[in-house]
Amino acid sequence: MSRALPKYNQRRVALTGGAAAVVLSGALIAGSALAGETSGKGAGARPLAAAGTIACPDVASRLPAVPASAKAEVDRNLALLQTQIAEANKRLTETVGQGGPDFVRNAILGPLASKRTAAIDRIAISIGRTTAKPQGLGSLAACTLRAGGGAGTAAPGTAAQPGGAAATGTIACPDVASRLPAIPASAKAEVDRNLALLRTQIAEANKRLTETVGQGGPDFVRNAILGPLVSKRTAAIDRIAISIGRTTAKPQGLASLAACTVR
């Protein structure tokens, strides 16, 4: 024969059952949340954007000869530029998925450009205290975001073209050595040194052409690579002509050999 439970036992059962229901309900909610996370690969899921990498124009390769009095200041700011890029890439990784479509531009690339502008200005000013202040370095402050493996990237050895297309490109420059007259013995060392420098400049420009694929607009290669290369070549060619002209007739028309093209 069953006996009725005392009232306090009835209350205890009711409370226990209620607690179990709460626990069960919580487990179902947690399970649903976990299911929502693990099902992110399914239809309707919104994956986080890939971090990508911030790429900035190289400043060191665009500098003229740095006076000894400015070297410490220049080296310090060149190192700071590298630190700034590393910090920006760290922030880029840490903030994946945050903000709207303009977040990276406003919160990372914008402040980075301001910091780079200040460091680049200090470099130019320090050089300008002893020799001619380098011009046009301000154009190197802006950086871009390269999406890893995404649209806008290209294989090494290709040059960016309008519309995101890419084609193989190589910088070609007129040969200077073949256009020189007989070189006096007194000028040979200086001429050889500058001819070697001309070859180095082309190699550096081709390296930069490869490393900056996908950066900038349709005029990027002309403004950021070919333009500075012409300036460097003009200076080297002038030194060659002057060194020859100290002993014999100074060769004319060599300046026309400074301009290069991308093939």
What is the arithmetic mean of pLDDT? 75
How would you classify the quaternary structure?
single chain
Helical/strand content category = mainly alpha
Distance between the termini: 103 Å
- Count of discrete alpha- or pi-helical segments spanning 4 or more residues: 5
Strand segment tally: 6
Strand order of the largest sheet: 1-2
What's the number of structural domains?
Answer: 2
* Biggest sheet details: 2 strands, antiparallel
Broad shape:
elongated
Which percent band covers the strand fraction?
A: 5-15%
Uncertain spans: 1-50, 149-168
- Helix-strand pattern, N to C? HEHHEEEEHHE
**Gyration radius, in Å:** 32 Å
Q: What is the percent of helical residues?
A: 40-55%
Notes on the protein architecture:
With 263 residues, the chain is mostly helical. The protein folds into 2 domains: 52-146, no CATH class; 155-263, no CATH class. The chain has 5 helices and 6 strands, in the order αβααββββααβ. It has helices at 7-38, 71-94, 103-128, 185-211, 220-245; strands spanning 53-55, 144-146, 158-160, 166-168, 171-172, 261-262. The strands form 3 sheets. Strands 1-2 form a two-stranded antiparallel sheet. Strands 3-4 form a two-stranded antiparallel sheet. It is elongated. It starts with 6 loop residues before the first helix and ends with a strand. 18% of the residues are buried. The model is unreliable at 1-50 and 149-168 (pLDDT under 50).
Write the topology of this structure:
Blueprint: H1 7-38, E1 53-55, H2 71-94, H3 103-128, E2 144-146, E3 158-160, E4 166-168, E5 171-172, H4 185-211, H5 220-245, E6 261-262
Antiparallel strand pairs: 1-2, 3-4, 5-6
